[in-house]
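Field reference: sequence -> structure
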Amino acid sequence: MECTVHWVADAGMAMLAETGSGHVITMDGAPEGGGRNLAPRPMETLLAGAGGCTAYDVVLILKRGRHEVSGCQVKLQAQRAETDPKVFTALNMHFIVSGRGLPVAAVERAVALSHEKYCSATAMIGHTAQITTSVEVREA
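Structure field:
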């Protein structure tokens, strides 16, 4: 896996990340840090990546278990250290999963498997942050 990040010098603190798969992600900083607030902060993209990684796992696990899953949303709330490096120190992930006849136990198991075995992003964040999860199952 590879990525190249370019500073866009004439745009304050904007950064363009070109991924190895050929996609571009724009990031920016807060105005008080020289940014223009035109894109997510780098740490926000890290948080979004963790949410995407674990949601991917949960949906895949449920589908492989032949469950009728039709939606998955993860609401993430992170806290950061007050001093540099301002790593994540706490992360709560609230999963809202919808489908037809989804057993809560199956969704909880999928979330646990993602957290404990499959999600590389949360595994890395878990070295500095206490991670908690909660599950809400909705009938589609």
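Note: The CA atoms of residues 68 and 100 lie 5 Å apart.
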